[in-house]
Structures are given as structure tokens and as C-alpha cells.
């Protein structure tokens, strides 16, 4: 939530102009102008002089007196006063009546006094109240000051230099101030004696700026092996060194700031966050890498996190509010930057009824449309204007945006008035434009051609009675109340602006209003339609043709990547662009390229769901497209498919993920002459009593270990069978063939139940996970299919849900991660392709070998991938593509499997074992297991745990099956 810091001192950085820097402050005394020197002496005001890059402030110690700001643009001179006030200038009576101690103090001082001659003084924070600034005009009036405890001349020279620099052209002035800051930064170093623990080790020290709403405070960041420290260049912070324990950091995300990739946001376990801006992207990345790789590995944004949150949301484990907050955070929205503030939807459209019926669809806003498209008449006008725009330039429907600093503060002016005063140059907005009534604001965003703003999270965040909120955080509905009794003005109709006028159903209670809106946000209607709004704000309808179709086009500069600010050398053009984007707002980072699935209907949600056992992201892609015009998507039908199928696939169980232990002492217990040609794939049933195998002899064979005989042999086609997968309920077998088909064999019926023409060339490999089937082919494509449950059987849907043709050569192997989120495919040219099974997109291409990739496996925890090539090379890599280690067997490798610790490899000369822990081969002079496998090339391997002991099946190029236990 937006936090309003209440500093002990009245002066704070929000009082400065945008782009202004605070340098120094000094104890000082003001001698009021327009009085005799004697009166000025007696009415002197003690306080502080604050020297900034574009102005000088004077903050009186007395709270009732206003802070005075002297903008350099209005100051004509800053000079030392040659003749100062002294007792000799007082009348005899005054000298007698004056305090002896004051006289002595004045007599013993040098009475160094300087003057600021100005045409304007801006007064603010009188009685520490937030009210419009008072701009007082003068005709070169001189204000006299003296400094306490410090010599005047060096400080006076600094102020005069700053005044002189302010006379320069804007660009030159900015460059000079930048040089001053850099010089000060070069002298700023941490005093290591101030470290919390003297045993801490200094890891990295860099310059940066701490970012908070409308404020940028430069300083220095220090990383030790235990803590992060920030030391501001000035003394505005309560503590000179702020420290944060690294163990408290829960997440670290790279951020944009001022349109540049130079920001870093750190999130802490207490829900607070810090935002730092660095001078270059290189420095930002350096700090990020040190934190993630060495100091805070727990804070890394994992590849699976986004999919995990999706699953949790679909099943009601997390709320709509929590999921929207997560998406906002992922898309770069932050409470620390008003230009990128989190955005939430209007969900209720009824602000006039006495009671709000959350079971009535008419209560809600149409979430399939952006705000600007809710009113057909307004939209028609905007479309006409759009069509009249020059076709050779980027066109847009809305010249305004749904989120911008002005809109955030429009809602929060009562809670954060000083921020509005800063944004509006010391004034509140016109009373007629001020946030006054929920109903009026809703009417405006539905009808005005220049108002399409959405809401902010504060509208949906009730107080948590079990949570001790930070004193500075907004309480529930507090932003709706004029608790500071601000003078916000009077409207043309004579009404004084005070608390927000709430709808009748809120019963004049901000708490009830927020609680009701939250109920609406979490309602079943919103749950089933929120995915459409996500498509508009964060998803595939944000840009391109889909945005055009959805009437979701905003001013071009608002989109990420619309302008490369680094390439603009003209400072005026750069400043203009930054100002425009800050004014228009910024569109969030696009998170999804495909339609976002809906939340599961309430009766189908499983809040106890195991996170690594969920269905594919795009289960509703096609349906979402078909339902864009309806108020409620037909997600119930879609979701029934999702819920009925989780046991079809062959995903790993906890038992599967038990480590094998030592394999060196296994013995061959059986050898079966099963096929006449190379065995391409084999699987053992969960009861360890049935072996299923397919071969290049085009046969599927089923062998009973219990009866020690073949119980089924089926010729599915006239070409080689390349691969097979067993459904988790073991009622069906999915088989790939060189005749381009995918076959499904019914174990119960003992026959082929269906076949699908999958590719234009041989199906070389396939992998099944729940209801998702991935196939690879010699036609160089990878296809994602959905398996449908039909009565007591299953079948492959007629069309794939994704078809990837990114490979430049034949696909030879595919594998799915244990949690079903990632697929990798190995090609004939040694390239490894990564596919996101949630967004159905290719996310990475990695040239791994110079020859064909023969086999791929994920480790059971999904964090690593082991791959082999036909020329005998093997590599262990992380899922981000980084190589962990590699080795070569100098012979053809056909297949492999792993438990995460041990790697078993099928080669030309039998079985080889390798340790993934040490990176060394496992050998023994007395291993009968290894010796017994060397009689023939191994073409396929399957490992199962039977009675907590490993059982290994191998298939050979000669058609034999061997069993080791």
C-alpha cells in the first residue's frame, strides 16, 4: 500500500521541485524584513537553512511559522551584509531592557549576516498543516540570515555558486548539478565502523538513489555478507546508515525507472519494499547478480513461480486481490513509483442502490471491455477520431490513460495531500475536478472522452485485524475521509469538498464500502470474468491486432519499448518525452501472449491441490476467444475437462522421485527375447508385473513377469514404432509411429482404440503429462496436444493446441518437466528448444551439441536437464540454460535416465553410470551389473523403485529386454 511517512521535521524531500536535490542544512537565524533593525533583532526566528540545487528553504523551529522557500529563479542576489545589527545601534532604553545574555551572545559573535534578495517567497506547512502554498510577491526584498556554529563564507560561496548555475540554460544547469552530485558521491564512503557486526565482509559498494513516490534521494549502497546498507548523501533520513538483513529479503526484481532499465526493487518478509535506481543498467545488473547468486538466492524469481500462482488462483488458494497484486508486481508496477502504480479494475457498476446484489450480473462492470469502450456512444466518437488520424502515424483511441500519477493522487489526495501539492505546483486541483463522489467518478469514467481511469488497490484492501499495520500505511478507507480537515475548496454548486460521498449501499461507512467492494472483487461473477480484464491490461489484448479488435489502443508513448530513451541525445527531446510519459501514464509490461484462462468454477476448485499437478495454462485458449462477447465465460465446461483428466498422464510421483542408491551391485534376473528389431521404448507397470515395449519391428508387446510369458502382441502399422507412454491409471498406452500417426491402445480391450495423424513425417518421440501430450517429428515440428476423455476411453484431440516449427532440423527427443510447466525438445542439429507449456510459447533456443540429441531427462526436482548426443557427449545444464558440467563417452549414446544423483546411460557397449554429484563415472572391478550389460548396445532404459529397491529394464538394438534387480 501507499505509505505516507510522517517525518519528525517538517521539511522533507517532497517539498522540493521535480529533479531538485537537497545538499546541506545549517542552524540559522532569520531576521524578519520590513522592520527596524532593533525590531528585527527582537523578532528573530531560529531554525534551519536548507540548501538545495534550485532553491533555499528556511524551516523555523516554531511549528506555527511557515517554511519559507526561496526559488533561485526569483532570487536576484545572495550577499554578505557588510553592516550587521549590533547593540550599539540600539537605543539606550532598548539596551537596558534587552536580555544581558542575548547582548553578550551578540557582542561575542562576528555577526556574519547574509541576505537573500528575492521577488518571491513561497510559504508552506504553517502549523505543519498541508494546505495550498502561499506565493508572496515582493520587489527585490532582502531577507537577512545568520548561520550558527559554522563559518559563513564557505557556505555563502556555495549558495552563490548554485544561484549562478541556476541562471544557465536548463541543460547546462542540469549538467553542473550532476557534476556536483558526482563530486559529492566520490567523497561519500561508508564508515565501516558503523557496521552492525564488525565481522561483516564488504562485498560491493556502489552509488545509487533511493526511490519513493515523487522523490529521488542519492546515496551509497553497501552489500556485506549479512546486510544491505544505504547511506543517503544528505541527512534527511532519520538514520545516517539504514541497514536491512539479507535474510529478510524475499524477492528481488529488476525494474524500469524513467523509461530505462536501471531500477531494482527489493521485497522483504514484512511486506515492505525498497526501490533503488542506478546510473547504468550494468551497475543494476551487477548488484542484482551479486545478491541473487551469492547473498540472497532465496529471492530469485523462479521460472515456475508465475505458473504456480496461476494454479493457486484458479483453484482459489489465493484470492483475486492477491493474484492481481502479484500480476501488477510482475509487470513492474510498484507503490514506490507513481508513474507505475498498481492498477485494479472497476468491478461494480451500481452506485445508486440501497443494497448491492452481488448475485446479479447487472451489478457488475463488463470486464471484457476497457473502460473507454463501456459507453457505446463515447466509443463511436473516439473511433471516428481514430479513423480520421493519418494512417502513416501510430493511431490511438484514448489520449489519456487508465493509470498515471495524477490519477493515483486524485484518489489519495485526502491521505497524501503534500504529494498532490507537489504534483500541482503547490495547489490542490480545482474543486469541480476533485475526487468528491464515487457515483460522480463512475459517471465520469463511463462518459467523459478524457477520463478512462481504473482504480487502485486501496479500494479493495480492508484492514486485517490480525495484522499490526505499519503506522504510516493507509488504514481501510482512510483515503476517503478528510481527516486532516483540508481546505479542498467549494464547488460551483456551493458544496464544500470534504469526505467522499459514498453510494447508499455503503451506509456512509468507508469500512463497509471497502469491504463490499472486496466482496464484489472476490465474487463468482468477477472470478469467472477477471481473465478478460487481465487480457486487456497485462495480456494478449494489450497490443497489436487484438488491441485494435478490443478497442484497447492508448497513446503510443505509453507502451513499454515505444521509445529508446538511451538513444536520444537531445536533452530537451528526452525531457519532453519523459514528461509526456509521466503525464500520460505507462502501460504495464505485457505478461501473456495468449488468452488467460479463467478461474475454475467454485464447485470445482481444489484448495488442497498439489502445485506440481495442474493442467496446462492454455486449456481455455480457444474458448476464451469464442467468449469475448459474452458477459460470463462458459468456463464450467472447460474446467470439467481439466478436473477429469489429471490422472491420465505419466507425471512423477513422490515414489518415482526416491533416489536409487547404489546400482553397482544389481544382478541380471531375466533376459527376454521380445522383438526382432531395435526396442525403441519400454515401461514397467506400477505393480512391477507387466512390461510394455515397442520396437522398430512395428509391434507393441506386453509381457507378464508374473507368468513369465508374453500376453499380447499387436501389429499397429507397417512401420517402426518410436515411443510409448503409459497413462497414470495404466488403462491406455500412447504410441508414436514412423507412419506419422499417434496410436492409443486400450489395455482393457486389448486393441487400438484410436489413431491420429499427428505430423507430415514420422513421429519420432512423444511425452505424456496429465492430459497434455507433446510430440516431435522428422518434419521438424513440435506439437502440443490435449487428450480427451471419451466415455471409458481417451483420444487425442483432432488439432494440436500449439504447433511449433522453430526447429531447423528433425526433432529426435522431447521431455516434460516434472511439474508439467516446461518442455524441451532436442533436434538433429544439436539444438535444444525450450517451450513454456503454460503460455504455449517457445522461450529459449540453445545450441547444445554439434550432432543429434538422442535423449533428454529432467532431474526429479525439475531444476536441471541432462542431455546426450549421438557422438557420445553429455551435458548437465540448469533450466535457464547455464552449463553445470559436461563429459564425453567417445561412443554413441542412445538413452539415459536419472534420479538426480545418479545417471544411467545406454551406450553402444552397454550401461555406464555417472554421479551427478561429483561429476565422475561410477565403476567397480567387481560390478557384475555393468559387466553383464556389455553384450549388446542399449537402445532404451526404464528404472523403477520396487519394494524400495531399484529395478532396471533395458531394451537392446537386437530386440532383447534385460531385467536387473
Provide a descriptive summary of the structure in words.
The chain is α+β, with helices and mostly antiparallel strands. It has four domains: 13-167, Pleckstrin-homology domain (PH domain)/Phosphotyrosine-binding domain (PTB) (PH-domain like), CATH 2.30.29; 188-301, Roll (PH-domain like), CATH 2.30.29.30; 321-643, Neurobeachin, Chain: A, domain 1, CATH 1.10.1540.10; 668-964, Methylamine Dehydrogenase, Chain H. Helix content is 20%, strand content 30%. The chain contains 19 helices and 43 strands. The strands form nine sheets. The chain has a seven-stranded antiparallel beta sheet with strand order 11-10-9-8-14-13-12, with helices on one face. The protein has a six-stranded antiparallel β-barrel with strand order 1-2-3-4-6-7.
CATH class of the largest domain: Mainly Alpha
CATH superfamily of the largest domain: BEACH domain
Low-confidence parts: 84-110, 464-472, 609-658
Distance between the termini: 60 Å
Radius of gyration: 36 Å
Taken from the alpha-carbon principal axes, the silhouette is elongated
How many E-type strands? 43
List the strand order in the largest sheet. Answer: 11-10-9-8-14-13-12
- Largest pleated sheet: 7 strands, antiparallel
pLDDT averaged residue by residue: 85
Give the proportion of residues in helices. 10-25%
Protein name: BEACH domain-containing protein
Biased composition (Low complexity): 618-635
Region (Disordered): 615-635
Pfam family, one: WD40
Amino acid at each position: 500500500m501507499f505509505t505516507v511517512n510522517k517525518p519528525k521535521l517538517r521539511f522533507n524531500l517532497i517539498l522540493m521541485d521535480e529533479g531538485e536535490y537537497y545538499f546541506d542544512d545549517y542552524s540559522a537565524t532569520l531576521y524578519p524584513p520590513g522592520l527596524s533593525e532593533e525590531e528585527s533583532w527582537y523578532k528573530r526566528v531560529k531554525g534551519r537553512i536548507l540548501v538545495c540545487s534550485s532553491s533555499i528553504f528556511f524551516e523555523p523551529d516554531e511549528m506555527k511559522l511557515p517554511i519559507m522557500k526561496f526559488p533561485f529563479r526569483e532570487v536576484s542576489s545572495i550577499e554578505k551584509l557588510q553592516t550587521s545589527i549590533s547593540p550599539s545601534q540600539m537605543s539606550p532604553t532598548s539596551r537596558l531592557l534587552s536580555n544581558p545574555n542575548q547582548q553578550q551572545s551578540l557582542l561575542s559573535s562576528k555577526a556574519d549576516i547574509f541576505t537573500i534578495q528575492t521577488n518571491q517567497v513561497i510559504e508552506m506547512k504553517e502549523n505543519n498543516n498541508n494546505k495550498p502554498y502561499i506565493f508572496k510577491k515582493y520587489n527585490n526584498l532582502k531577507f537577512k540570515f545568520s548561520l550558527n556554529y559554522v563559518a559563513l563564507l564557505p557556505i555563502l560561496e556555495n549558495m552563490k555558486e548554485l544561484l549562478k548555475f541556476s541562471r544557465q540554460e536548463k541543460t547546462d544547469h542540469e549538467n553542473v548539478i550532476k557534476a556536483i552530485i558526482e563530486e559529492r558521491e566520490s567523497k561519500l564512503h561508508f564508515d565501516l565502523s558503523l557496521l552492525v557486526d564488525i565481522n561483516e565482509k564488504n562485498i560491493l559498494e556502489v552509488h545509487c538513489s533511493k526511490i519513493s513516490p515523487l522523490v529521488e534521494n542519492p546515496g551509497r549502497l553497501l552489500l556485506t555478507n549479512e546486510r544491505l546498507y544505504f547511506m543517503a548523501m544528505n541527512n534527511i533520513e532519520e538514520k545516517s546508515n539504514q541497514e536491512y538483513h539479507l535474510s529478510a529479503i524475499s524477492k528481488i526484481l529488476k525494474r524500469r525507472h524513467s523509461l530505462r532499465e536501471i531500477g531494482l526493487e527489493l521485497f522483504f518478509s514484512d511486506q515492505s519494499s525498497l526501490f533503488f535506481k542506478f546510473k547504468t543498467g550494468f551497475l543494476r545488473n551487477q548488484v542484482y547478480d551479486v545478491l541473487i547468486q551469492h547473498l540472497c538466492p532465496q529471492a530469485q524469481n523462479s521460472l515456475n513461480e508465475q505458473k504456480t500462482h496461476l494454479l493457486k488462483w484458479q483453484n482459489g488458494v489465493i484470492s483475486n486481490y492477491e493474484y492481481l497484486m502479484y500480476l501488477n508486481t510482475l509487470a513492474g508496477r510498484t507503490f514506490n513509483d507513481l508513474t507505475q502504480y498498481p492498477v485494479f479494475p472497476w468491478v461494480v457498476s451500481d452506485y445508486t442502490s440501497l443494497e448491492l446484489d452481488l448475485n446479479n450480473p447487472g451489478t457488475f462492470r463488463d470486464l471484457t471491455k476497457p473502460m473507454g469502450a463501456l459507453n457505446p456512444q463515447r466509443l463511436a466518437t473516439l473511433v471516428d477520431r481514430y479513423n480520421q488520424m493519418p494512417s502513416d502515424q501510430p493511431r490511438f483511441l484514448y489520449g489519456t490513460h487508465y493509470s498515471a500519477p495524477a490519477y493515483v493522487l486524485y484518489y489519495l489526495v485526502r491521505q497524501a495531500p503534500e504529494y498532490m501539492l507537489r504534483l500541482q505546483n503547490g495547489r490542490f486541483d480545482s474543486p469541480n475536478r476533485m475526487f468528491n463522489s464515487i457515483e460522480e467518478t463512475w459517471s465520469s469514467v463511463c462518459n467523459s472522452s478524457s477520463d478512462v481511469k481504473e482504480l487502485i488497490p486501496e479500494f479493495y484492501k480492508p484492514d486485517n485485524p490480525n495484522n499490526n499495520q505499519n503506522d504510516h500505511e493507509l488504514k481501510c478507507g482512510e483515503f476517503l475521509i478528510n481527516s486532516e480537515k483540508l481546505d479542498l475548496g467549494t464547488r460551483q454548486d456551493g458544496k464544500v469538498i470534504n469526505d467522499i460521498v459514498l453510494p447508499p449501499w455503503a451506509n456512509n461507512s468507508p469500512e463497509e464500502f471497502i469491504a463490499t467492494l472486496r466482496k464484489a472483487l472476490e465474487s463468482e461473477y468477477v472470478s469467472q470474468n477477471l481473465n478478460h480484464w487481465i487480457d486487456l491490461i497485462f495480456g494478449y489484448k494489450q497490443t497489436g491486432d487484438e488491441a485494435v479488435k478490443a478497442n484497447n489502443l492508448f497513446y503510443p508513448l505509453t507502451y513499454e519499448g515505444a521509445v529508446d530513451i538511451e538513444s536520444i541525445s537531445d536533452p530537451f527531446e528526452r525531457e519532453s518525452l519523459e514528461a509526456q510519459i509521466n503525464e500520460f501514464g505507462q502501460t504495464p509490461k505485457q505478461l501473456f501472449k495468449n488468452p488467460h484462462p479463467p478461474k475454475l468454477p467454485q464447485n470445482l476448485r481444489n484448495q488442497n491441490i498439489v502445485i506440481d499437478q495442474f493442467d496446462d495454462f492454455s486449456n481455455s485458449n480457444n474458448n476464451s476467444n469464442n467468449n469475448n462477447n459474452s458477459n460470463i465465460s462458459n468456463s464450467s465446461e472447460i474446467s470439467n475437462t481439466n478436473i477429469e483428466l489429471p490422472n491420465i498422464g505419466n507425471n512423477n510421483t513422490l515414489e518415482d522421485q526416491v533416489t536409487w542408491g547404489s546400482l553397482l551391485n544389481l544382478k541380471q534376473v531375466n533376459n527376454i527375447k521380445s522383438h526382432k528389431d531395435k526396442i525403441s521404448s519400454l515401461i514397467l507397470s506400477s505393480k512391477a508385473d507387466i512390461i510394455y515395449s515397442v520396437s522398430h519391428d512395428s509391434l507393441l508387446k506386453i509381457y507378464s513377469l508374473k507368468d513369465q510369458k508374453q500376453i499380447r502382441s499387436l501389429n499397429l502399422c507397417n512401420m517402426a514404432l518410436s515411443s510409448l507412454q503409459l497413462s497414470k491409471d495404466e488403462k491406455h498406452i500412447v504410441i508414436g509411429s514412423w507412419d506419422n500417426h499417434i496410436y492409443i491402445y486400450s489395455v482393457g480391450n486389448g486393441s487400438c482404440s484410436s489413431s491420429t495423424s499427428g505430423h507430415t513425417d514420422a513421429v519420432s518421440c512423444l511425452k505424456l503429462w496429465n492430459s497434455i501430450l507433446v510430440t516431435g517429428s522428422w518434419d521438424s515440428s513440435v506439437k502440443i496436444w490435449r487428450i480427451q476423455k471419451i466415455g471409458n476411453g481417451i483420444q487425442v484431440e483432432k488439432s494440436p493446441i500449439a504447433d511449433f516449427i522453430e526447429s531447423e532440423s528433425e526433432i529426435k527427443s522431447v521431455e516434460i518437466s516434472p511439474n508439467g510447466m516446461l518442455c524441451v525438445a532436442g533436434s538433429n542439429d544439436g539444438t535444444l528448444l525450450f517451450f513454456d507449456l503454460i503460455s504455449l510459447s517457445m522461450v529459449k533456443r540453445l545450441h547444445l551439441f554439434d550432432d543429434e540429441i538422442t535423449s533428454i531427462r529432467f532431474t526429479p526436482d525439475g531444476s536441471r536437464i541432462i542431455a546426450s548426443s549421438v557422438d557420445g557427449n553429455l551435458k548437465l545444464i540448469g533450466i535457464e540454460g547455464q552449463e553445470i558440467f559436461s563429459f564425453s563417452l567417445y561412443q554413441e549414446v542412445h538413452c539415459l535416465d536419472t534420479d538426480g544423483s545418479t545417471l544411467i546411460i545406454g551406450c553402444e557397449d552397454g550401461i555406464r553410470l555417472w554421479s551427478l554429484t561429483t561429476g565422475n563415472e561410477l565403476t567397480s572391478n567387481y560390478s557384475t551389473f555393468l559387466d553383464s550389460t556389455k553384450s549388446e548396445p542399449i537402445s532404451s532404459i526404464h528404472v523403477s523403485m520396487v519394494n524400495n529397491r531399484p529395478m532396471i529394464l533395458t531394451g537392446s538394438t537386437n530386440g532383447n529386454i534385460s531385467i536387473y534387480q
